Fold this sequence. Notes:
The protein has a single domain, classed as Dihydrofolate Reductase, subunit A (3-Layer(aba) Sandwich), CATH 3.40.430. Helices cover 20% and strands 31% of the residues. The protein is of the alpha/beta class. It has helices at 26-36, 45-50, 82-88, 103-111; strands spanning 2-9, 14-16, 40-44, 62-64, 77-79, 96-101, 117-123, 131-132, 142-148, 152-158. The protein contains four helices and ten strands, in the order E-E-H-E-H-E-E-H-E-H-E-E-E-E. Strand 3 (40-44), helix 2 (45-50) and strand 4 (62-64) form a beta-alpha-beta unit.
Amino acid sequence: MKIIGIMAATPEGIIGKEHALPWYYPEELDYFRHLTQGSLMVMGRKTFEATPPDLFKDHPPLVFSRNHPLKRLPNHLAFSSLEDFLSWCPSSPHKEMFMIGGAEIAHLFLRENVISEFLLTKIHKSYSGDTTLDLTFFETWEKKILTSNLTYTTLKLQNPKETLI
């Protein structure tokens, strides 16, 4: 199974403020929805709670949480550890899934070399926030520009290492 990270960050790595995005770019949000539509999405509990439920209409979300059970959506899968998640992955009929955040899950997946590709939208403007993505994880990854405009650049980052999955 291929796990693709998909997130947006400022030049400083800011990805959130008070459990929300600190910016609003409708075209970037549409791009995210287009790419993830119909796909499995894995995320942390805080991201799950901050995400509109309609995003999960096609597939149940996969949620990392130390607090079982989550009650917001009845049809979700919850994992309390990376080991539980990795043991579940082979049973999934899906060939790929998206890791959509937040920072704790992104860092866990990057540190443990689970993500093979990352679609990173680099917001050109600086915003204040309380949640950051450590962009140094991507220093050795192969980079390809997918889109670029005055507001942001979307990169496809390829992990040079063999991933666990």
